[in-house]
Amino acid sequence: MTSDTRQALVVRGGWEGHSPVEATDRFVPFLRDQGYAVRISDSLDVYEDADLLGSTDLVVQCWTMGRITREQTAGLVAAVRAGTGLAGWHGGIVDAFRGDLDYQLLTGGTFLKHPPGFIDHEVNLLPDRADHPVIAGLGDFRVHTEKYWLASDPLIDVLATITFDADEERAHAARIPAVWTRTWGSGRVFVSTIGHKPDDFDVPEVRTLTERGLLWASR
After folding, report:
1. Is the terminal CB of the chain with fewer CB neighbours within 10 Å at N or C?
2. pLDDT tens for each residue of 134-163
3. Is the pTM of this model over 0.90?
4. How far is 161 from 131, CA to CA, in rounded Å?
């Protein structure tokens, strides 16, 4: 390993329903092909290792629900603010550590609910963000998976949305962010709400924008 080898840290665990090992294993070979040395952790204790995080270019997190300590949150937030990238998908990033406001401010969105089961729905890319490197050259596409309703920070850079039609709970249709980026200090954050099950990444557009998101977020 040379000193200029980029470093990626995959942090995975929490609720097993989101297949944290199988899902992240789909992207480890890609990162290695892109020149990263990949370290994998099944413990949140790595977020307290300032030296490790300071030398990490990209954290890929897939950790649904679970508990995080104040020290772990502070370590992750400080690392991203200093330039370490953070990326993830679905519940592994926006349904993690419920109630930790500092973490939710970092990611820019938090899961609230979803309709039962898997639903066919369209993901719409924002035309005015069509030149963003995460979605450049892609078009709208359809998925059959969970459809996330979430609360989001108005300062995120939304790249794609999904639509919830009016129903007995909602008087009007609503467009909800599905893919976004943000900056936090000197660091970058990438989030996609798509990826409940590993075969969601068999959809070419999902795979492509996720891979691009990992690279975009990296230092």
Report:
1. N
2. 999 999 999 999 999 999 999 999 999 999
3. yes
4. 16
